[in-house]
Design goal:
about 20% strand; about 375 residues; three-stranded antiparallel sheet; 4 domains; 13 helices; PH-domain like; Vps36; about 45% helix; eight-stranded antiparallel sheet; Arc Repressor Mutant, subunit A
């Protein structure tokens, strides 16, 4: 990927047509990014081929469908280029609409223009044989008392403050502008952090979190890898939380509240959280999703042992006598649902015996093991 390029959509089963004629690129993956349209061939028996098209050359998209013998062909996207060339993408496994949506979004944002501006701002290399006055468009400023002394420093700080205020006002015109300015705002916050005291840093950090710019993983920044990157970030976050949590097993409902609170205003949906948790085990992350027999889902360390928590329950029974789910929940500061699940697991291991009486369901130590 190029600098500042973000993957948007990956769609397999795509063929390329030049106008209405088939090409040798009959089966491959289409990848849309903020800067390019990529094609990676998956044809059997032929070496992998890759093509790319800069989105800056596209002039128009269309979704007309050609019919042959009254039978509709696969959904297609027509690509009209500024030079007059015309191509079609044929989606044989579906997915045309999401690719079309991502292309239109990328064409609206015109990320390549921002990238070109950044390149143009890079100073040209200095040629020793060229006079100093023609080496660079940057002109040497003449000395002025206006920029000297304490007064000059204060005026410079005032000008910088005005520039910063202008950037903030521009960034907050609407949500789209905020997203486009997000990287610039983060860079600005980092530069300010280096100049501030510890107390000012803390205040600035709280302010940035309240704006939702504390580098959380978002769909806009991660693109097609959103749930994978979210799973990694969530795993890192829970690694610092679970060791202090009783039993090191936390229900997803509690994880959702805790994690969203830490993200500030960049909230995620319950569905996104669950999809990220499902990916944790395939990715080999140190935190993984667990589903109990009752259907309760929770996060726990990969090397978690239920035996340790069962031993803690046995110690509690030695102290207070027979226990119920409410007693375990109160003593270990965990939810009633999780307390009941842990008691049932200890019973399955043969460490506890149940007593279902008029007082409710109580659990005793399994004295039959001592006989």
């Amino acid at each position: 990927m190029l600098d500042n390029e973000i993957e948007l959509v990956i769609q397999p089963g795509v063929a390329i047509y030049e106008k209405n004629a088939k090409t040798t690129y009959c089966d491959g993956d289409i990848i849309t990014t903020t800067l390019r349209l990529l094609f990676i061939s998956n044809q059997q028996g032929t070496p992998h081929k890759a093509l790319q098209m800069n989105l800056s050359v596209l002039s128009e998209l269309d979704t007309s469908v050609v019919k042959v013998w009254s039978m509709a062909e696969s959904p297609k996207i027509g690509l009209s280029c500024k030079g007059g060339a015309y191509y079609r993408l044929s989606f044989r496994k579906g997915g045309r609409d999401k690719v079309l949506l991502s292309l239109r979004k990328a064409l609206r944002s015109k990320a390549w223009e921002k990238r070109t501006e950044n390149k143009n701002e890079t100073p040209a290399p200095v040629d020793p044989s060229t006079p100093v006055t023609t080496q660079s468009p940057i002109q040497k400023k003449e000395f002025s008392t206006r920029h000297a002394g304490v007064g000059g420093i204060l005026r410079k700080k005032t000008e910088q403050t005005k520039t910063t205020d202008a950037q903030l006002k521009e960034a907050f015109k609407d949500i789209d502008a905020l997203m486009l300015k997000a990287k610039e705002m983060v860079d600005l916050s980092k530069s300010l952090s280096r100049m501030c005291s510890d107390q000012q840093n803390a205040e600035l950090r709280d302010f940035m979190i309240s704006m939702g710019i504390d580098n959380p993983v978002t769909k806009e920044t991660a693109g097609a890898k959103y749930h994978t990157e979210l799973a990694k970030q969530l795993s890192d976050f829970m690694e610092g939380v679970l060791p202090q949590y009783p039993g090191q097993v936390m229900p997803l409902a509690q994880v959702y509240c805790l994690y969203n609170r830490a993200r500030g205003t960049a909230l995620i949906s319950p569905e996104d959280l669950y999809r990220a948790c499902v990916l944790m085990e395939p990715l080999g992350l140190p935190i993984q999703l667990r589903e109990f027999t009752s259907g309760v889902r929770a996060l726990q360390p990969r090397n978690h042992s239920d035996r340790q928590f069962s031993i803690r329950i046995e110690s509690l029974i030695d102290t207070v006598g027979p226990v119920s789910a409410s007693i375990v929940a109160e003593n270990f500061s965990i939810s009633m649902t999780l307390a009941k699940e842990q008691l049932l697991l200890a019973e399955q291991e043969g460490l506890l015996c149940r007593d279902d009486s008029i007082q409710g369901l109580l659990f005793h130590k399994n004295f039959f093991l001592l006989v």
